[in-house]
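Suppose a colleague, Dr. K., hands you the sequence of a protein chain of 665 amino acids and asks what its three-dimensional shape might be. Before reaching for any lab equipment, you can write down a predicted structure in token form. Begin with the sequence itself:
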Amino acid sequence: MYDLIPLQWAWGLVLFWLVLGGASLTFRRDGTLITDLIFPLGALGALAIAVVGAVGMAGGGAHFILPIGLPDLPIHLRLDALSGFFMALLGGAAFGVTIYGMGYFRSMDAGALSLLSLWYHLFLAGMVLVLLADDAYAFMVAWEVMALSSYFLVTTDHKIPDIRKAGFLYLLIAHIGAVSLLLCFGALQGGQGAYTFDYMRSAELTPFWASAAFLLALFGFGAKAGLVPMHIWLPEAHPAAPSPVSALMSGVMLKTAIYGLLRVTFDLLNIQLTWWGTLALTLGLVTALYGVIFAAVQSDMKRLLAWSSIENIGILLAGFGLTLIFFADGKGGLAALTLTAVLYHAINHAFFKGLLFIGTGSVLHATGVRHMGALGGLIRNMPWTAWLTLVGVLAIAGLPPLNGFVSEWLLLQAFLLTPDLTHSYLNMVIPVAAASIALAAALAAYVMVKFFGVVFLGQPRAENLKHAHEAGWPERVGMIWLALGCVLLGLFPAHVIDWLKPVTRLLLSQTMVNDGNWLLLAPVSAERASYAPVLFLIVIAAITLLVFFGVKWVYHGRVRRADPWDCGYPEQDARMQDSAEGFGQPIRQIFESFMRVERQMPDPFDRQPKYHGESHDRLWTLLYQPIANMVGWLSGHIGKLQHGRIQWYLIYSFATLLFLLVFTR
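The predicted structure, expressed as tokens, is then:
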């Protein structure tokens, strides 16, 4: 009975969010009640979901049946270690984002805000239901609730044509993926008509049907996660959505796809094959490199972060593929290490990417500008936003002692410590994969230097930036929460790994062994590789204080401040600073064959020259544009059948009846 309590609480919190969303519609004339009452209650619900998920991880997989749904199709819910972990991830990130939303949405019109609040809380409820679903019917219903509510959030400013296009593209890809997932569940149940996950766990599928189910799951969940080449919606939808929505979609919603892959592959399928892992590893590496290269050449802040999310999803998928390779090859210890790195990076990404998106939202609110070429010097007027965003920048760049370093270091350890595998080709592929992961991490640091330097450092590139205002206290509290998560997840990795053990035990029947103590992280042995983040932080702090006080005491205030040497040119202005386009120019030159580049070159004699370069995804031109043209052509010809005359419709009906009479019995 005790095991059911966390699950009952989780279901109760889903209903609580649904009630909050419905209550928002009653405040269409008073937006203050929504931002000051509904959103704080929604944030408390997110914090409660995080606690329930953490408690549920220790349970043995409680489940119960809800007497609702279609006839003979009740809804089955289950809370185990895997769903509990992702609920904790969701609640932890959503708490900070929702607190931030209290201030961010305060300037919205009350009518629009009431609808946004409805879809926002429905979105949270839908994601939790995806994690709790224990049958295909409940999963697909929750998946559609999540997709539709996020579509309406993306199209909040639906009067803008580009936003409507972005929303339609997102919804189209989401439903193509949903069809693939529906077929996947059809393959998993083996033609027996059973739709519960318990039956799928016990089904003995042949390698052919197991492979079909895996490939359908990889395509369906890959479409939601932004896996190349199904990534095209993500760089369009994130810039279109409000910043808190972008933070939830990138930080949390993309992880539901990782959850689904883990659930299907290691829980519902009875066999795991090595070539599945090789395929996932290859697609993950391609996605990571493709995403980070395009992130490096972006000039739009939110589009840059969207491409960065594609890169991080690629890293997660590469780790998933390596886990599958190790598990299928009988290397359970290394599989546990790699899966731990994947789960660790998933929760890390939720915190630092959520922080970066809402930090960008504060810049957008204060300046009304998304293009980095028109920003600069904001650290002076927005110190809270700048320093808190810097925490997210350092974390996503993989610098110690923050959280991004831990998960990427663990993943690299798994790649570098790979023993001889059964399939000889893997012994050649995995070193190349390790180098690709290292390259993606290095380019990610390059991207973050560009992002933070161009936006916050230097001189303002426009006069209106001198009047930029700092974010309000609700926004600051939300950013502080996520920044604190980045710090704590980075300083205490041994505790986080112990917390993740129920998940690896559930999926792999084995856990990662840390050959150290709470201060020392040693995934294999302390002699071979170890990391002590707290000691690392103490050393950094000691060196910094030593340099500061050494300069102060040695020179006794005899420090002279002067402008830096400017090559003899006295008139310095913001135009001398490196621009967003200039910073990304080397990457654009190297990888131009992968892009469709548009350049606006200034006249040599122009006294106020302007340069603009934009890089477009060539996959859209090569893969999706022909499909769109074909659909348009077919629609145009089929539309000719619609004459608007009743006699033609009667003729169509009569011809159909004749056809059925002739060719059917």
